[in-house]
Each structure stands twice: as C-alpha cells, then as structure tokens.
Design a protein that fits this description.
By secondary structure, this protein is an alpha/beta fold. The chain is built from 4 helices and 5 strands; from the N terminus they run βααββααββ. It has a 5-stranded mixed sheet. The model has no long low-confidence stretch (mean pLDDT about 90).
C-alpha cells in the first residue's frame, strides 16, 4: 500500500468530497459523539463508481496502525477531522485533514 503526502486529491475523489461534504461531516460528528474519537474511512473504486464509507473507532484504527502512528495522526490533525481514503485500484492511501 502506497501512502502519499500530496496537496490535493485525485479529481474523482475531490469531486466526491465536495459533492458530499455536508453529509460526510454529519456522519463524522454523529459517530464521534456516539462512539468516541476516530476517523472516517473511505474505500474507493473509480471504475465501479463506488465509495464505501465507515467510521473507524480507535479500536479499529489500532488493528491497522500502531499506537504511535495513531497518536501522531491525532497531534497532526489538531481540531480537524481525519479522512482516511483508500483508492483500491491504485493501491494508494490518502490521509486528509478537514
């Protein structure tokens, strides 16, 4: 899996984020309030025009990342939301702070 540090998302992901901004914020806020801190995870496939969205709790995050990585992500985000976006076709992952 290639994790990229970029200044912008690929166009199709950027469009999805803009078109669904309010709903994604609503999902994030609702889950954070109900189950605690976490990230919004996206599994994307451009050819199938498919995006699966899942709120990952800290427990789920720690199944995929080390405790140190998770703590570092929390420090880097400040008061922003973390969106963890996986492009399944390109085997790439994007970490977006919103």
């Amino acid at each position: 899996m290639n994790i990229q540090n970029i200044s912008s998302l690929p166009p199709y992901l950027n469009k999805f984020m803009k078109d669904n901004f309010d709903k994604l914020n609503e999902i994030y806020a609702e889950h954070k309030e109900n189950v605690g801190d976490g990230v919004l995870s996206f599994k994307c496939n451009e050819n199938e025009n498919k995006v699966d969205v899942l709120y990952m709790t800290e427990e789920l995050i720690l199944q995929n990342f080390s405790k140190e990585t998770w703590e570092s992500l929390k420090v880097q985000r400040g008061d922003k939301k973390i969106y963890l976006i996986e492009d399944l076709e390109k085997s790439s992952m994007f970490i977006v702070y919103i």
